[in-house]
Write a structure and sequence with these properties.
Shape: globular
Mean pLDDT: 78
CATH topology: PH-domain like
Largest sheet: 8 strands, antiparallel
CATH superfamily: Pleckstrin-homology domain (PH domain)/Phosphotyrosine-binding domain (PTB)
Number of domains: 1
Structural class: mainly beta
Distance between the termini: 27 Å
Low-confidence stretches: 1-24
Helix content: under 10%
């Protein structure tokens, strides 16, 4: 999938810091909360009224919450020892799992080599997105995400919505 960043790519050359105090991409879960699904390389396309622009980040489904954290790649260090790391920009979606109404997948088209530009006659490709229906204070929202395992995410969300232990 073109829209997803490959963090192991030699082009990005990202190294994750093992020490907890320096790791800028850590996210803490609450008491008795555990992750059901965690996609560290998700791409939010649109669909939430508060965020009308694409973002790269981390999508997390826990037994208590549905979370999207916007992230960015930053360079740290001096002139001789620069490192690229992932940094949390902010939590953009953080709702109780009871606010998740369901999930479905959809196939879309875009211009080749872009994130979500409209396709042209000779340059187009298909990609799949996960659409999650959320009950928010602003009303029903349907944000869409590009993730690696669409079927796994859809199944996990449907189980969480149905109240099953996952």
């Amino acid at each position: 999938m073109l829209g997803l960043l490959d963090l192991n790519s030699p082009i990005l050359n990202i190294s994750f810091v093992k020490e907890e105090k320096e790791d800028m991409s850590v996210f803490m879960l609450g008491r008795d909360e555990h992750a059901i699904r965690d996609e560290p390389n998700a791409y939010y396309h649109r669909g939430h009224s508060r965020y009308g622009y694409p973002m790269w980040g981390r999508l997390i489904l826990t037994n208590k919450r549905f979370i999207f954290i916007q992230q960015e790649v930053v360079e740290r260090g001096g002139i001789l020892s620069k490192k690229k790391e992932v940094r949390n920009v902010g939590i953009k979606i953080n709702l109780p799992v009871t606010s998740v109404l369901g999930a479905m997948t959809e196939t879309r088209e875009r211009k080749k080599g872009t994130i979500d530009a409209p396709p042209s006659l000779f340059s187009k490709e298909q990609y799949n997105v996960l659409i999650v229906s959320l009950d928010t204070p602003e009303g029903q929202e349907n944000p869409s995400f590009e993730v690696r395992d669409l079927d796994g995410w859809t199944a996990a969300i449907q189980k969480a919505v149905g109240g099953e232990t996952v």
